[in-house]
Amino acid sequence: MASSLKRPLVAACLIAAGTLAYAAPAAAQATRTWVSGVGDDANPCSRTAPCKTFAGAISKTAAGGEINCIDQGAYGAVTITKSIALQCVGVTAGVLHSSTNGIVINAAATDNIFIRGLDINGAPPTSPGLNGIRFLAGASLTVENTVIRGSTGAAPNGFGILFAPSGNAKLVVSNSTISNNGAASSGGGILVQPTGSGSARVEVISSRIINNLNQGIRVDTSGNSGAGNQVAVTNSDISGNVLGVVVVTPASTTFGIVTLLNSTVAYNTTNGIVSNGGAAHVRLSGTTVTGNGAGGVAQGGLFAAGGGTIDTYGDNIIFGNLPEGAFTSPPVPKT
Q: How far apart (Å, rounded) are the C-alpha atoms in residues 83 and 108?
């Protein structure tokens, strides 16, 4: 009798132990999380219990998910290591990054990152931000409706966007403003400089790369042995920088090509467009280049050196530069 009573007791104990062992699995990450200026990173980052910073929310957000901003706030610098979207529409979503990078992307080769509606600010000159966005690895980065300003860290930093992928990657910048980045002799708006065997495909669409303290857009193949780098700039304004568009391809490196379509390159104090190196190429169609070289440096609108080329489809406006400079070949007929 005693033995028959023991058997149910033992079974019940085993079931209870099993329940205890499996009753508390790790909390699952959410596909959508939320941040608020009055949130708390100890929260689960739900709509009703939001986190306070991107760094606090990203660990609770599943790969491929997104972080949304409920209201305006200072959401802080963050490092991204997976596919994710930072979506902040209709609010002031600030990323203040004194003495550091605003957003660092070091993800897998298949990861896609999307950023929309941020104000990325390098903060006070006494403790300047390094780079607004620093991209090291990933499949793609899309930046939309975003302001990136005030990254004035010393070389090799000081860029609004430093795009330096170690693999093959794509950057799209749409309807954004990149301004007041860089220092007197380094940094600027966007640097495209893949490392090792990496390569870059870049689109800048309906954006303003303006008033940067050195370069507007720079493509530099130094140390790069990849499949080549191409940048297309469409319906955009590259003005008020020291140098507008610069392509530099040192010997024994891969090619760099910038195509300017229906854009403006104006009032850059040294050069509007520079193409320097045997594999450096700039192509223009429907683009106005004016007022460059006004700072007194006699290089002006178009400047090619070291075998670099600047080609035209014959439908551009080049005037008012000091000096104008010249295309390196006759107009290319449109087909």
A: 8
Task: Provide the residue type at 88 as one letter.
Answer: C
What total number of domains does the chain contain?
2
Do 39 and 177 share a structural domain?
Answer: no
| Helices (H), ranges, 172-262 | none
Say yes or no: 230 and 265 in one domain.
yes
Q: In degrees to the nearest 10, what's the CA dihedral of 180, 186, 188, 194?
A: -160
| Domain region containing 41 | 29-62
pLDDT tens-digit map of 202-258: 999 999 999 999 999 999 999 999 999 999 999 999 999 999 999 999 999 999 999
CA-closest candidate to residue 178, choices 228, 93, 218, 119: 119
Is residue 303 a contact partner of residue 280, using CB atoms and an 8 Å limit?
no
Supply angle C-alpha 47, 49, 54, rounded to 5.
80
How far apart (Å, rounded) are the C-alpha atoms in residues 121 and 160?
Answer: 9
